[in-house]
Amino acid sequence: MKKRILAYGRLNDDQLAQLGQDFEVQAFPGLASADDPAFRAALSDAHGLIGASLAITPELLDAAPKLEAIATISVGYDNYPVEALTRRGILLCNTPDVLTETTADTGFLLIMAAARRAVELAEMVKRGDWQAGIGPEHFGSDVHGKTLGLIGFGRIGAAVARRGALGFGMKVRYAMASPKPLLEAELGAERRELDELLEESDFVCVTVPLTAETEHLIGEREFALMKPSAIFVNIARGKVVNEAALIEALEMGRIRAAGLDVFEQEPLSPESPLPHMTNVVALPHIGSATHETRTAMAQRAVDNLLLALRGEHPINLVNETARRPA
Ligand code: DGY
Fold first, then answer.
1. CATH superfamily of the 100-282 domain
2. For the D-isomer specific 2-hydroxyacid dehydrogenase NAD-binding domain, which residue ranges apply (predicted)?
């Protein structure tokens, strides 16, 4: 009997057909919750899952006794219980690399938009309120030549830094990462303790993954260390930042502005003041959301799942120790 795959992510017809060559595929397009009764019922016979943005809990794993592998269409895997998966010998595969440049583009979009007040001023034009030459009350801040502080200096952090250093002549500082001599040589980047980086940077950009150690890494104390002219950008995960402290820092003018692609609660609560603040550029978690990159991510997830279910080593395996001896 063929192994069964439940596909709840956006896969194109070719990708579904590729999975279907050797496996039986049940598609759940637009699945909003793991509590969907048809999905729950199908779990009991599932060997593989492929998709994104679904909270996978140990309780859900209890309903999937045959599960061998999950291929998430994301680089982040903070919504997966990695230890529980590993204990059960379930492989978890993610999609790094293919989204690095696109996510870094989003980071730089936020740096530029927040610094030059692009959204606020575009809205002014849209309202018909552009009635005189632009004066100092609408001036923004330069980006070129400033100091860019990266919290986290993995693939995406380095790609943001490359844009800053090579494209905009920025000085690059990084924290919360092991020393990166090659990037230091390439970009003139310098490693700092987190507090020093916060004090020194004109732009602070968060790219660190969400873990128990990084949850609420940036809060009231950290915002107080930043320059009053600092612009804060988050393209990682909302929970790395204490959002209430961020809102207060923006309201009190402790920092100048923020560019945010991620939030503590997503979709953003209608009660959140963030999208209404003129010094905030808020995006709906579009880090990797381009046609090209989402197709490439889905393809990487398909390739990972096919390898995993065939007993081969997936290209991107999060929990190496879950592998069963061949
Ligand atoms: C990821 O891949 O983790 C991104 O946040 C999804 O856009």
1. NAD(P)-binding Rossmann-like Domain (3.40.50.720)
2. 109-287
Every domain of the chain and the residues it spans: 4-96+291-322, 100-282
4 given a catalytic annotation: no
Query: What is the position in ligand 1's atom list of the atom closest to the CA of 76?
Result: 3
pTM equals: 0.95
Distance of CA 222 to the CA centre of its chain: 21
How many angstroms does the Cα of residue 69 sit away from the middle of ligand 1?
19
How large is the C-alpha radius of gyration of the chain? 22
Instruction: Give me 305's structure tokens.
Output: 């799942």
pLDDT tens for residues 263-279? 999 999 999 999 999 99
- CB of 204 within 8 A of CB of 228? no
Residue pair 301/308 in contact by the 8 Å Cβ criterion: no
Specify whether the CB–CB gap between 254 and 226 falls below 8 A: yes
Three-state SS at 326:
coil
CATH domain 4-96+291-322 topology = Rossmann fold (3.40.50)
Which residue among the candidates 266, 292, 310, 312 is catalytic per the annotation?
266
* Residue ranges around ligand 1 (CB below 6 Å): 74-76, 99, 285, 287-288
Do the first three CATH levels of 4-96+291-322 and 100-282 match, i.e. the same topology?
Answer: yes
Tell me, in angstroms, the distance from the centre of ligand 1 to residue 297's CA: 10
312 included as an active-site residue: no
- Reported as a single tens digit per residue, the pLDDT across 182-232 is 999 999 999 999 999 999 999 999 999 999 999 999 999 999 999 999 999
Q: Which atom of ligand 1 is nearest to the CA of 99?
A: 2
